[in-house]
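Hi R.,

Here are the chain sequences for the assembly we discussed:
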Amino acid sequence: MTIRKDHEVHKRRGKTNLTLGVVLGAFVLLVFAITISKMVGEAKRVQSENATTTQAE
Amino acid sequence: MTDQSYDAEFGDFFALLKPRVMSLVVFTAAVGLLVAPVSMNPVLAFSAVLFIALGAGASGALNMWWDADIDQIMKRTQGRPIPAGRVTPSNALIMGLWLSVLAVGMLGLTSNWVAAGLLAFTIFFYAVVYSMWLKRSTPQNIVIGGAAGAFPPMVGWAAATGGVSVESVLMFSLIFMWTPPHFWSLALFMNHDYSAAGVPMMTVTHGKPYTRKQILIYTVLLTPITLAIAFTSIGGPVYFAAAVILSVGFLRGAWGLFNRSEDIATGDDYAAERGVFKFSLLYLFALFFALLIEAALRGLNLTWGAWPVWI
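And here is the predicted structure of the full complex:
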């Protein structure tokens, strides 16, 4: 029951679709990396803020 | 349109982003970001430069959508995706608009909204003010259009610092004043195409001797800006040395062009004009590279305390 034969359009655009898929995948990874970087940066900022308040006390 | 006709490939869409312009944007935006007195997480710095480049690419696609009619006439641009029939104008428009939204939104989320706002303004300026309005209506098109190319270091600086300062304004002014002599020296040996397309290039509307004078005027006005950067927080002796040498070279080149007649220029197939055009590229690249060297030296604490920072 499965469709075995690719439509001709799919074959013709296969390479473009693959490249686009790779680009989108890379974008997802980049957003993930940005998220981690921002969280780490924020954690460091909070940590140093806490350190200075403790010192002040 | 689906079966027999040509299907746009990924490379055709990529060509819409004007990759060569984008590489210059990547370079100047990266310098603007790296010379800023704020250390940035490398992932965030990389992302900021990427999104600035994407925004520049989006404005390139919008420009190609709008200019498809004249691109078809000019030899230099006939091979672009739309005039060559590889991408439809509406696809270029959709891609340009969505990439603009994506680039501005992502830069805002990654860096800050000052940088994102500047990027949005840059795209608007290039696509609307320059492409739609000024390019076909005034021979000063290059002067105003140069502002669009001058924004990237400012956006990079804003991505790092969250604001605008005298250093970033001077980097903007440097590219802004550099663009007219850079582009007009090209126009001196390329004007056949522009006149055919009806773009009011100064060489066509005011003649070449007038353009030569304008090149000299802008080069003279550019020089104090180039030198002033040496005495800001991002300057220093290495940059100053480069600025002096390059300024002398550019001024000599512009003076040479000013004193050439068209007979002599056509006689040697515009050798001096081609030379000045190439030198102008080296000029900008070397100055920004010198700023990078200064930033690296500051990073290594190899600064010279006696160097005056006046501005």
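Chain A touches chain B through 16 residues (CB under 8 Å). The two ends of chain A are 74 Å apart (CA to CA).

Let me know if anything looks off.

Best,
T.
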